[in-house]
Specification:
alpha/beta, two-stranded parallel ribbon, 13 helices, 12 strands, globular, binds iron/sulfur cluster
Amino acid sequence: MKTFGLDEKVKILGEAAQYDLCGACGVTVPRKRNPQGGWIYPAVLPDGRTANLLKVLLSNHCIHNCYYCAHREGKAGGSSTRFVPEELARLFISLYQKGMVRGLFLSSAVDRNPFRTMEDMLKTTEILRRRYRFPGYIHLKILPESTPDYIETALHLATRVSINLEAPGPGYLKAIAPQKNFENIWRKFILLRDYSRRGLAPRAGFTTQLVVGGSDESDREIMQTISLLYQDFSMTRAYYSAFHPVPGTPLSEREPVSTWREHRLYQADFLLRRYGFQREELVFDGKGNLPVETDPKTLWASKHPELFPLEVNTASYSLLLRIPGIGPVCAKRITRARKETLLTTLESLQKIGVRTGHAAPFLLLAGKRIQKPEQLSLFGKRAEFAATG
Ligand code: SF4
């Protein structure tokens, strides 16, 4: 392995970390290079505040051969390097003390062997917590081969942990990552759940990530697996990454997956996590995929004419959430606002933040439907409306 200086290492390993989404904390944001050559990502932390994270791999030298991955064993070209724990901990603390970062996202390729890699990631985290007394956000990747001891230590040290599932079932995972074992990864989720039941859970929970369309899995299968993780394992959230072929990999000839598919999966995921939808309520096409032309909530609403239009002034919070264009924040604002006044105009809803172009066909305002129905389209653009009798 070639020797690199610290600046080069941060550049190489910061750039390599871009493929891991779990540290993005739910927002897609532009990355910027800091003056020291590292990679800093503004991210929304679990407490809702935005903070800069140093997002980096411990190593990009891998003994695995995942077909979609730029870092796989025997990759053509590119530079391989690794941090030693002391070095990475010192680098992070110097950025933290300068006020350039407030948290760390640490992942790694499987360098030499998974146990050594996991040990080095844990060592880095331990130095930060114990020696430097760093109290802030640390997101730590858990490698699927980790032993229960490693996982327990990770849960003590990290604010959030993640284990990448990559695919929704064993066959699909084998097709894109032959050395990874679905059952083995699933056993780690079971371990996390067991620890959590015994009171040992990371403050900000655990997450996972899937490559979408790397094999022939359907959105329905993805949502089945993910909803199980939400329901039975109390997973915090999932991240979806539309497959994009990397030159020089075994899947380089495979068609890229539309980011619309990824977007619809995120929307469906929100319905499960934040809107009280059950997986069985999601609407899929004949191939088991979420239609890309329409967002999943509008599609669901259009299939339930028996429920709509809903009276905004009396509908329960959970029913308000079923109206397209109304999310949890707006639904709460509506329930507060209607204690003070009768909501009679779309303008009043717009002020609250409701996306009235989406919502109008599905609601009543003080018993009145919306004027100019010809302008209303389930799939159309935003338009201005007034309540009418
Ligand atoms: S384990 Fe697979 S996905 Fe992770 S770095 Fe190695 S080849 Fe890439």
